[in-house]
Write a structure and sequence with these properties.
Length: 465
């Protein structure tokens, strides 16, 4: 998905309206709801009411309560009715009804830079027709705040400071309890965990959706494998479940406690789960968890508008030990982030040498820290240029220009400016540029973005001086 003027203006105008700036933190709400959108002849879901009417009512409730990020599952053949009565400014386009779509969509008050649909590599029809549709998960990188006033970023020399992103995943795992179902579901969760390890390196993460799994099922280990408390592997996803934290006093249950429809307690367990983790860039904390059943009732109050209780969680966030700039360029190539390396250093990072490569475009960016650590991204093309920084000289500003190559947005140019007013540049400038500046008292110490033979997308990591 290429950046568009729509996305650029979203970042320019919406981010400043989020509750608080990145210097002080803020809050947001998330909702997960399986909307029971399979055609009635395939699955009536044993829910009263006409499915079209239910879908319209669900959409109107989304609009009424205005949750910041809503993930829906089974959003198949009644999708247009939900969207027709909703008013969230950012919404994913449907991938289609049965049997073409995944049923996964997102409605949001916050803009995102990237969006992908990923199909499960494994599915099972042992208990139900899970292979009928391309179920799987979605990925999006949401901008949850910005401390700058964010004027239009397509103007040359537009100065910005920090931005705050988190990676959001929406999933719908295989159902059923047959051995083949359990194996498929575990494969589904492993696929998400592997994706997080690759594409969310260094980032805060939220995963929520219909897992079709419960902790209390001894043979069903899928959701347990996501928990940091159950998965001590340091390379694992290290996620927390706010239901376990806030409703179960941090203890993963082993005894089944099923929820009614509508649920009258938050203590019971459903297959609809929420997971999250912080990063060195942003600290997340779940403050409140509830099943929002009473907010999505049928007209007579007898049942939720779906056969699932909606899950509502309130989060707060605060700045981490590191910060980052906004991202510039296109979401192509492989994700890279220097955040884990920088966060693991024993001393404050201090660049000593900046090294860029470029010709008609920017081929690579790199720097060497005073302790000898080298951070390099991109390819080996172009001509190298370097700048050695003095002991009390810091990298404060970076101008980036983007352009089109082979129908993809890439970084064409970089110019670094130090505290001594010295510069070094590589690549070819375009008319689509931005100036990214470290906050007062901070400096640029690393990179994050996407690359291949060249640099497709680029942002900068800031650390205190």
């Amino acid at each position: 998905m290429k950046p568009t003027i729509f996305v650029a203006l979203a970042l320019a105008t919406i981010l400043q309206k989020v509750e608080a700036s990145s210097s002080s933190g803020g809050s947001f709400t998330i909702l997960s709801m399986n909307v029971a959108g399979l055609p009635a002849f395939l699955n009536p879901n044993d829910v009263p009411g006409d499915k079209t009417t239910n879908a319209e009512t669900i959409g109107s409730r989304f609009a009424r309560y205005g949750y910041d990020v809503i993930h829906v599952q089974e959003d198949f053949n009644y999708h247009t009715h939900i969207y027709a009565s909703d008013n969230h400014p950012y919404r994913t386009a449907t991938s289609g009804g049965v049997p073409f779509g995944s049923g996964l969509n997102t409605l949001s008050n916050l803009p995102w830079l990237d969006f992908r649909r990923v199909k499960w590599s494994t599915c099972s029809d042992a208990s139900s027709a899970d292979c009928l549709t391309p179920k799987g998960f979605t990925f999006m990188r949401l901008a949850i705040s910005s401390s700058s006033s964010s004027p239009p970023p397509n103007l040359d020399n537009t100065t910005t400071t920090t931005a705050v992103y988190a990676d959001f995943y929406n999933l719908h795992a295989d159902a059923g309890s047959e051995p083949a179902d359990l194996a498929a579901r575990q494969a589904n969760i492993n696929q998400v965990a592997d994706y997080i390890a690759t594409w969310s390196k260094g980032n805060a993460v939220l995963v929520f959706g219909d897992t079709n799994s419960r902790y209390s099922r001894t043979a069903d280990t899928a959701v347990r494998s996501l928990l940091a408390s159950e998965n001590p592997n340091p390379n694992g996803p290290s996620l927390k479940d706010p239901w376990v934290e806030l409703q179960r006093n941090g203890v993963v249950p082993s005894t089944e406690t099923l929820c009614s429809n509508p649920s009258t307690t938050d203590y019971c367990e459903t297959v609809d789960k929420v997971y999250y983790r912080s990063s060195p860039l942003v600290s997340l904390q779940a403050e409140h968890f509830t099943y929002a059943s009473n907010l999505f009732l049928q007209a007579d109050g007898s049942s939720v508008l779906s056969d699932h209780n909606p899950v509502l969680v309130n989060f707060t966030w605060s700045p981490g030990s590191l910060q980052q700039s906004r991202l510039w360029g296109g979401p192509h190539g492989a994700w890279f982030s220097d955040v884990p390396t920088l966060a693991g250093l024993l001393k404050k990072p201090k660049p000593s040498v900046l090294t860029f490569r470029g010709a008609s475009r920017l081929d690579s960016v790199g720097l060497s820290l005073a302790d000898g650590t080298r951070l390099v991204h991109g390819g080996s093309g172009g001509s190298p240029v370097s700048l050695t920084l003095g002991e009390s000289e810091y990298w404060l500003d970076a101008e980036l220009c983007q352009g089109q190559k082979d129908s993809r947005t890439r970084i064409f140019y970089i110019r670094a400016v130090t505290s001594a007013g010295r510069t070094v540049q590589a690549g070819a400038a375009t008319k689509d540029c931005v100036l990214l500046s470290a906050p007062e008292g901070w400096h640029i110490v690393g990179f994050l973005g996407q690359d291949g033979d060249e640099v497709d997308q680029l942002g900068f990591v800031f650390a205190p001086r």
